[in-house]
């Protein structure tokens, strides 16, 4: 007897999560779906569902900076394939997602048959990249990949602390939210600095923010100038 598939949809827009859930249920009849609307929620979900078959991940979510959520998933749960589902249709961004070990990329404007093909191919163990990205001349960003490797060396708790740091939270606030001592947070921060090769909180935040991608409306504004 074949076990039901378990898929996690991570996106901060409720309407899109609902639409994607309906699409997935049409494509994979026997499926259990979990949803997350922020990176911290997604971290908790994958910890609870380490046997998930697939994560559908939006890059623009609270707590995430561009590829940071993807880097976290691939470093700590490498057995779970991840398809990036984004409003961004820049072929360079699509290729960079694959550089960061995504198993596929789906533009949110894609028709249902394209979404179906991507999900089916990734569930079968393949990589799915839209045709426009396959035609794109692409060279990996070595600096970004080096930073991703450094981020991947963080423990899940260190990654949570770093995420909170990027939101401007102080050690005392982070300690309260994570229900640990401030000394524990200070130890995590020291380890984060060492692993990222930085000396200050500002440098650590800037490093993570360098993984950000431009939002579609920013891209349109720039292209019209």
Automatic annotation (TrEMBL):
SMART domains tied to this protein: HTH_LUXR, REC
The modified positions for 4-aspartylphosphate read: 58
Whether DNA-binding counts among this entry's keywords is yes
Which domain of life does the protein's organism represent? Bacteria
Could you tell me which residue ranges the HTH luxR-type domain spans? 147-212
Phosphoprotein listed as a keyword? yes
Entry keywords, A to Z? DNA-binding, Phosphoprotein
Q: Please name the InterPro entries in this protein's record.
A: CheY-like_superfamily, EvgA-like, NreC/VraR/RcsB-like_REC, Sig_transdc_resp-reg_C-effctor, Sig_transdc_resp-reg_receiver, Tscrpt_reg_LuxR_C
Q: Which residues form the Response regulatory domain?
A: 6-123
State what protein this is by name.
Response regulator
The taxonomy runs:
Bacteria, Pseudomonadati, Pseudomonadota, Gammaproteobacteria, Oceanospirillales
